[in-house]
Amino acid sequence: MIIVQMSIRDECTHRGEPTREINNAFQILWAEDTATPLKADAAVLHATKGLQEIIAGKEEQIQRLKHAAANIRPAVQQTSQAFSQIHASTNGVLVLAGLHFQQVQLLVRLAQLTCSNTGVAKLPLETHDLLSLVCHNFSASCHLNRMSSLVPEQGGDVVGTLDLASRLCLNRRTTRQFGAMLRRLGAIGTMLWVGMLNVITLEYATASECETLRRPNFPHCSPVKYYSHPEDGPVTVVLLNFKRSDNIRKIVDNMVNYNSVAEIIVVSNNPNSTFTYPNKKVIVLDMMAYEDDLGVAVRFKACLLAMNRHILIADDDLMVTEAGLSNLLTARYEHPWSIVGFWGRDYNHSNPDYAYVDTEPGHHDIALTKALLLDTCACRAFWEASHLMQDIAHEAAVTWNGEDIFMSLVSHKILGDSPYITPFQEGIDVHHLTEGTVGISSAQDHLPHRIKFVQTAVRRLNCF
Predict the structure, then answer these.
(1) How far apart are CA 113 and CA 271, in angstroms?
(2) Where are the chain's structural domains?
(3) Predicted TM-score (pTM) of this structure
(4) Cβ distance 126 to 181 under 8 Å?
(5) CA trace torsion 312, 318, 322, 325 (10° rounding)
(6) Residues forming a β-bridge with 355
(7) CATH topology of domain 235-460
(8) What is the pLDDT of residues 390-417, one digit of tens each?
(9) 414-434: pLDDT as tens digits
(10) Contact present, 105 and 204 (Cβ < 8 Å)
(11) Is cis: bond before 423, omega within 30 of 0?
């Protein structure tokens, strides 16, 4: 079985075939072979919409994939039974498969159709070890603690396992090392292997899209322009639910109706301020356990799970209107090598000193995250270089206060242009909501910390 599995993996990755065809082919196989109501489910119809268009001219490769998969079809048929051991929740399935949310939504539906409504069996210990290895970078870091609660006896060094998972997901060749463990796991192993395949192909697609983003000498590299002019949407909105849940609800109530908004990710990292929102566009991530490690930079982690390239980061005291979002998208189209926002800052390049003044429209050193339109390439680059600022990031009263400074500098390095601040009209493009007393900028060390942060970041990134 493993030989057949690896042959499919080779077919999918080493031949460099386009990954969308591969993912969709497996979705078709899954739907055809599990003999469940999934075949007729709306989620599958949505996931396979436009398949014929996408794989035009690829019939031969798809046939080879189906032929190679024929010998493991019996194992694939058992995956519905394996789901009886998994909690039928978005977080549970995300931990299990480590897939992009487009795949996760499909798995969640399968879990809902196959899981029992009473009782949740705990995952076997060996599954915990494998899950740590196959999860996507973000999935592993966000959910390892939650996952361990499903395991009877947690074993091994969790921190070491997490670090290993982060490295493994960047190197698709290492999948050969898991053959023995996959054999022991049987049907669950087969299902997880399919999940690993999706993660590998997703990573490969992103790396191809961003060209040389993972260069070993980053961030001391020459600016490279990674992509063509962005299209007008769709957009993923990322919001942080800290202490203003009422504001978040108002923002989501409006944004779910925007034509250009396809997805809203609400990150929750405060145990006293939970948030739920039953809407197919809205995903709530519980990341309270990582408040000390990620702080306000948690939003850039959530960006790694966005289903769309264009991402709007917005504060919880600001309503970006549909007109305002259109304004930002237009600015991004006109300035494709810059992240764009409504508010910016500058500093003296000869002796960097953070300037706490609003800027005029145009290119500036820093774009604030009050309302910021960027893409997944910039978010990945942020975390590629984040180790350079870990010590300073944890000195502030709020961890990673200065994440907007670092994002601006990193994006300038990889895209080639400094952030662009576009003009806006209060009441038309944005509405300010009740602020209260929880703003980060109200902290006593806010300005001194940001001055030190920008000076250190400019030096360590070798900027300008």
Answers:
(1) 31
(2) 2-209, 235-460
(3) 0.54
(4) yes
(5) -40
(6) 346
(7) Spore Coat Polysaccharide Biosynthesis Protein SpsA; Chain A (3.90.550)
(8) 999 999 888 999 999 999 999 998 888 8
(9) 888 899 999 999 999 999 997
(10) no
(11) no
